[in-house]
Amino acid sequence: MHWSDEPLHEEFDDGDVAVVEGFRYERCDACGETLVRGADLDELQRRTVVAARTDLERLSSEEIREARFTLGLTQSELESQLGVSAGTVGRWERGEVLQGATADRLMRLIRHHPELLPELGFVARERRGPYRTRPSE
Ligand SMILES: [Zn+2]
Fold first, then answer.
1. Fewest C-beta in 10 Å: which of 14, 49, 87, 105?
2. Cα–Cα dist 101/99, whole Å
3. Which residue, among 10, 110, 13, 116, has the nearest Cα to 67 in the 3D structure?
4. Could you confirm whether domain 61-120 is CATH 1.10.260.40?
């Protein structure tokens, strides 16, 4: 085995590939197999999400959170708008999981067109519009 920091090509379930640079891992001299130690897996996953968002032009964690705040939605409300399972938006915002292309495009659309939320089935809560403006900082 030897240490390497050659770029890693990480493939997602849907076939998208992200190139992770500068990550140190071990590689077998005989077969070329890569070995990432358990303690380093979370770091690799986090870097893979960052690389994928750049390579595939997806919203960053900050952009997702910003869009959600602008729309005045909780994480679970955004999950129900997008039709994704509970806990998913939190994982996107913490950079643990890459949002799919469809959810990414839908978020880009509704952050600039909050008037579309009712089309997605969002019901305004009492004394509050379907979205609210964020207080100025
Ligand atoms: Zn080997």
1. 14
2. 7
3. 110
4. yes
Digit-coded pLDDT (tens) for 57-81: 999 999 999 999 999 999 999 999 9
Q: What is the pLDDT of residue 127?
A: 43
Q: Give 31 Cα–ligand 1 centroid separation in angstroms.
A: 4
Structure tokens at 59: 């919203």
Quote the ligand 1 centre to 126 CA distance (angstroms).
Answer: 62
Domain residue extents for the chain: 2-55, 61-120
Q: pTM of the predicted model, to two decimals? A: 0.80
Binned at pLDDT 50, 70 and 90, residue 129 comes out as low
Contact status, residue 44 vs residue 61, Cβ threshold 8 Å: no
CA of 26 to the centre of ligand 1 (A): 11
The alpha carbon of 25 and the centre of ligand 1 are apart by a number of angstroms equal to 14
Residues in the chain: 137
Q: What is the pLDDT of residue 13?
A: 84
CA of 29 to the centre of ligand 1 (A): 6
Residues around ion ligand 1, judged by CB within 5 A, are 28, 30-31, 33
Q: What's the pLDDT band for 9 if we cut at 50, 70, 90? A: very high
